[in-house]
Specification:
about 475 residues; mainly beta
Length: about 475
């Protein structure tokens, strides 16, 4: 064990401990221990695994702190891994010298405008556990290549950039679990121009990742999200699980709780194979926003308080929207936000067992909220091959279901009702334009219905 105090580090927050820590890294046994104290550093501690071999850094139960007074990352985990996670592809020296570098139970605090937390590049099995990173620019920055990443039980808090940034990285197998990821100005977990497979985001609290707490002038409308995936021109992101998280925010223009942006090519396959389940998602301009995505399942979530929409999908393919509840908090009638689902130019969509209920007032009642612009509680615009089965739609405004030029739409066993004492829904279903191959079977409505002539109706369209 290399105790950094024994190599000259003072840990008093005043003396520059950079050289002493590097000395401990070079001359120690690979286990870098930080006793209680505040360790001032002025340049990056580069953990070159090829040079130093297997390395663990820990802060004695979280009572040690690194104060980064320089630009760049406080700790840089640097490896030489260039292949896949297939055990047959590893060079023996990777297992011998570079596997599983660990940072645990330590705090990193930024003292420079361009200070970062941890950078990871070319590393197999990097592991962060029990790490607190705050007041830096980017808390964790993963780039170029990595495999089998674990971020567990960490706190990434109040950082001016991105809390977890997957930046132009080729990365398979990453698990982010049990973390508190909040108040990152440019995003909670953000993926850009990366090749990602096997991404698991499970059991975290991810919240308030926008400019509100930072108050940077003229920066409120920079697009951000708690979970932000942008494939860009070169990336693909598939095999994703987002489950059992609390994902909430405060309103920011162009903001979303979950935003996934795929390819603008016809196949739309750069973002997809994604399961979003068992989360609480709320309080942003748009709660879930998908663009050019393919193969997304959304089930078992409570999704609430979208200033613009709860769910917005544009040019998406093969979406399964299951038994979610879209709503709001009924205890705050004077602070209600409308709900809403809008699909534009989407195809092969299944909605089943879904419940959506609008605000009682039919409009935002939160003081200062941007007025919502919509035609219905569920809007299908130029969509095709859509099944709505067992869907309950309550208190729609101005209409409940609003469809335009949508074909091969099947509504089966749906209840589309206004149960308010004074109904505000103009039409339970208002369908304009062409609707070839569409059918309504055994649905209940209690407000007017307007349909194109080519929609077939089986059973009465009225309350049972």
């Amino acid at each position: 064990m290399a105790n950094v105090r024994e190599f000259g580090a003072m840990g008093d927050g005043m003396h520059d401990d950079t050289a002493a820590i590097v000395h401990a890294l070079e001359e120690g046994d690979g286990e870098l221990e930080f006793p209680r104290g505040d360790y001032r550093i002025t340049s990056t501690i580069v953990v070159d695994l090829q040079k130093y071999s297997r390395t663990a850094i820990h802060g004695t139960g979280g009572i040690a702190k690194l104060l980064m007074y320089g630009a760049g990352p406080a700790i840089f985990l640097k490896g030489t891994h260039t292949t896949s996670a297939d055990p047959l592809s590893f060079r023996p020296e990777e297992w011998q010298r570079e596997r599983m570098p660990t940072i645990s139970q330590i705090e990193i605090e930024g003292k420079h405008a361009d200070a970062d937390g941890v950078k990871i590049q070319g590393v197999m099995q990097p592991t962060l556990a029990g790490v607190l990173i705050r007041q830096v620019r980017n808390a964790v920055h993963i780039t170029e290549r990595a495999r089998n990443v674990l971020l567990s039980h960490c706190h990434f808090y109040y950082n001016t950039g991105i809390n977890v940034w997957l930046d132009r990285v080729n990365l398979h197998q990453i698990i982010i679990t049990g973390c508190h990821i909040s108040y990152g100005r440019l995003g909670g977990i953000r993926i850009e121009n990366s090749e990602i497979r096997n991404l698991e985001i499970t059991g975290n609290d991810i919240e308030y990742n926008n400019n509100r707490a930072h108050k940077v002038p003229d920066a409120d409308d920079i697009p951000t999200a708690e979970i932000y995936v942008d494939c860009g021109p070169t990336g693909t992101v598939r095999e994703v699980t987002i489950s059992s998280n609390t994902i909430q925010a405060t309103y920011s223009p162009k903001g979303a709780n979950i935003r996934i942006i795929g390819s603008d090519t016809p196949e739309r396959q750069k973002a997809g194979m994604c399961c979003i389940s068992g989360n609480v998602i709320g309080s942003q301009e748009t709660n879930v926003h998908l663009t050019n995505a393919r193969g997304i399942t959304i089930e078992g979530n409570y999704i609430y308080s979208g200033h613009h929409r709860n769910f917005l999908a544009e040019r998406c393919h093969s979406l399964v929207i299951g038994s979610n509840c879209f709503g709001h908090n009924p205890d705050y009638l004077e602070k209600e936000l409308c709900t809403g689902i809008r699909l534009e130019d989407c195809e092969n969509i299944t909605m089943t067992g879904l419940q959506i209920q609008d605000a009682q007032a039919g409009e935002h009642t939160v003081a200062g909220a941007v007025p919502i612009k919509r035609d219905g509680l569920i809007e299908l615009i130029r969509c095709r091959r859509v099944n709505l089965t067992g869907v309950q739609v309550f208190e729609g405004y101005p209409d409940a279901l609003h469809l335009v030029d949508s074909s091969d739409v099947l509504l089966t066993g749906c209840s589309i009702l206004d149960t308010r004492d004074e109904p505000k829904t103009a039409a339970s279903i208002r369908w304009t334009g062409k609707a070839p191959g569409s059918r309504i079977i055994q649905c209940r409505t209690n407000r007017p219905v307007e349909l194109p002539a080519d929609v077939l109706v089986d059973g009465p369209l009225g309350e049972a």
